[in-house]
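As a next step, we paired sequence with structure tokens, yielding the entry below.
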Amino acid sequence: MLCKCFSILTLYVAESMTENIQHSINEIRVKALRYRDELKTVKEHNVQLEQEILSLQEGVSAFQSELNRTQAENTELKAEMEANKSQVVDSSVLHNRSEEEIDELVKEIEYCIGQLKK
């Protein structure tokens, strides 16, 4: 009888342990599937981020090229502006000389007229 009770108790414990083990296995399976799905989602997000990074790098490269072109154009325009400034200064000097020369010519003409009147 004791043996029979012991075997029933053993069966009950074994069945209870089997249920606990099965429950633990199911929990582990659910967690593993959830982690697998999360990992897949993270990997897909990483792929999207890598594509976005590549796109942004191409944009930066395009902006850098535009900046370089604009800086070169700016340098050329500054050089042209400086050349134009020096021409303006030179023409004003020439203009001042012309006025001085005209004054000299007027004085000379007045002198000549004065000589003719004598």
Summary: The radius of gyration is 50 Å. The mean pLDDT is 85. The chain has one helix and no strands.
